[in-house]
Amino acid sequence: MSVKINKREVGGVTVVDLSGRLTLGDASAQLRETLRELLNQGQKKIVLNLGQVGYIDSSGLGELVSGFTTVKNQGGQLKLANLTQKVNDLLTITKLYTVFEVHNDETAAVQSFS
Amino acid sequence: MSPETRRVEMTLETKIESMDLGEEVARRVAATAGFDEDERHKICMAVRECLINALQHGNRYDPRKPIGVTFTLLPDRLMVQVRDQGPGFDLAGIPDPLSDEHLLKSSGRGLFLVRCFMDELMVESGRNGGAVVTMIKRYSSNHRGAGESEAEKEKQR
Lengths: 114, 157
Ligand SMILES: Nc1ncnc2c1ncn2[C@@H]1O[C@H](COP(=O)(O)OP(=O)(O)O)[C@@H](O)[C@H]1O
Ligand SMILES: [Mg+2]
Prior knowledge:
- The complex is a heterodimer of chains A (114) and B (157).
- With 114 residues, chain A is α/β, with parallel strands linked by helices.
- Chain A has one domain (4-111): Transcription Regulator spoIIAA, CATH 3.30.750.
- Chain A has helices at 26-40, 58-73, 85-93, 106-111, and strands at 3-10, 13-22, 45-56, 77-81, 101-103.
- The longest helix of chain A is centred in the middle third of the chain and has 16 residues, at 58-73.
- Chain B has a 5-stranded antiparallel beta sheet with strand order 1-2-3-5-4, with helices on one face.
- Chain B has one domain (6-156): Histidine kinase-like ATPase, C-terminal domain (Heat Shock Protein 90).
């Protein structure tokens, strides 16, 4: 039911693949923990690949926003890639589309760092 | 109650697992009511947000306090009520999450989403205190009409 998170390194950028539902509870906590680990390791170029995420609730949205802010405050960048239609709509109505840098696919997101 | 009214009533425990359970029931009720996939998704999200609020702000994670949920299928709309045993609240005091001041906050988007996804949202105080949150979703024109009675359909022929 919850979310699966996998980290990969692509040309100096960390791609975090999420799949499932980003909702209140474990899923949000897992994302927070993953970002915390990356920052501790000095990984500050991060792409969240949301291609397999079809559902985010307000708690998951909150986690994305605080992740974005935390990474930024440490001199890094958190970008989003590969949004499903539902997540795209959600970021649009909440105006968060104007906050995040969103890319159509992973390659474009990774290249945007160089 | 008129014969074409159908109702599902349940009591959820105040714990995180109840959010998925309540949402699952919402999905089934919305399907029975004849809503399409897109509308079902919106109804589920709205119900989930109200359940989360009942858990967090209403019952404040107190497992001794139940969350009541009622789904009512009316001839022209689905009505969902979520009841908790908390302090209650007033919609007028809720800030706009789209304002510059609140855009980067990590919370405060739940009821905004409910408003986007449902046709109506009302908040009242329960008889014994607590919040009673009522959401309405009207059937759209291309609706399958599961909320209608046979008699109603007969009249339209
Ligand atoms: N069931 C409830 N009981 C008491 N207060 C509530 C309830 N639901 C919502 N609220 C109040 O409305 C505010 C906004 O709710 P919401 O939009 O879901 O954002 P969030 O839950 O992220 O704070 C909450 O912070 C809370 O103060
Ligand atoms: Mg909420």
